[in-house]
Write a structure and sequence with these properties.
Length: about 450
Amino acid sequence: MDSVLIRSRKNISFNSTEYGTEHMNLDEIKKYGPVSERMYYILLVAIVSYDCLVSTPIVGTLVNILGNAMDDYMPSNAVLLIFELIVNIRLIIIIPALYTILVCMRNNREKILSFLAIAIGWLSSYHLRAWNDHCILTITLLVIASYGKDFRKITKYCILSISTVVMLAVILCLAGMLPDYVLERNGRIRHSFGMLGPTSIAGHMCAVMLAMIFFRNGSLKWYDHLFIIVFFASNLLWIDGRAVLLTGLTAYAGNLIYLVIKRKRIIVPETICTVVGRLLGYSYIVMFFVFFLLAATFNDKAWEIYKKTSFTESVGGRIAIAGRFLNELEPSLLGNYMQKYDYADQSFEQIGDYLFIDSSFARVYFIYGIIGGVYCVVLFTCIQMRLLKKRQFFRMFIIAASGLVFLMQRGILEPSYNILPLALFANLGNDGFYETFYEPEVTDVRHSG
């Protein structure tokens, strides 16, 4: 009689109905995957790179040069139509998105929800056509087209695209070919290094850092730490992106704590993991609710509290703007058209004409409407619920931490500022997560030898 000790772990059964390539067997993946994947990654690099280039004066300069040249040979309406097509060329991602829905998805519910999301994305740009702003539609198509794709590969391509454009802008700025828009805040000089503003370059660098930590899942390489050191140093010395710095410190501290837990193989009770996971799962709902509650109750007494430190003053400024629009604008299902100004277009001396909603939470509600706000909350909550189902709590923490920067800055649904939404349908893998966070359940099974 031999005694065999079998160690099983709780809640680690693989769910065959999970998103991604789990729906298709190996032969189907080989048959349908390569063509759509090649097209997807090419378009992903093009869209993220273009989205990042828009944050530099390069695109505006080229548009002015081409526009002046074409005006001599073509009617103005034809010129505007050509630029409209160029700006909206990123919507060609609809081809792999539709291919994914019709060919790769096996679940009818997923197909219906995907078509519904595309319809919402199109409706969200109803009031924004003068901007050529199809932010929600673009990210929706990217999310759908990411179905079953390897998120590690997605992250690598996005990081490469963003880093290349940012480095190009910095090099051209240092060479004197791009302007360095310099701002002063509380006696500190803030540089943009070829971008349209300090928050632009800080936001792109933060996107790379968050994607890197999310992608590594706690196992950063030495060159990742080197980039993070450069990120913190440049923010402290030249950029002064406080929301970005706070988010980076929070994510990096969480990474270090997770690494200690993983290395020491500390066992965390399942109850604690479940409670923390639930709290993180609803983090975006809580953040949106608290933000607009503070905006609705904003008054002079609250402003006196916010003004005690420069950081809370910046937070209070965002909340004050949201409170102003809550009072002045009627709730809109599809959003409101607003004149758009940026650092390169309007100086801070003309503050009376300056209208730029920095907070992503405020932007998605006031500019994209109730539909846009609800869509954003649902999108991130679905991502968190998926990660909770896979018990990837550290990645849930990173997504929740990203909300800190988007409380202050734009870009929550722009791929060059935030690639984390692409994790919704992508193939994430388990990355050995269960080896750390669950107590083993030991069962004795005896059989005859």
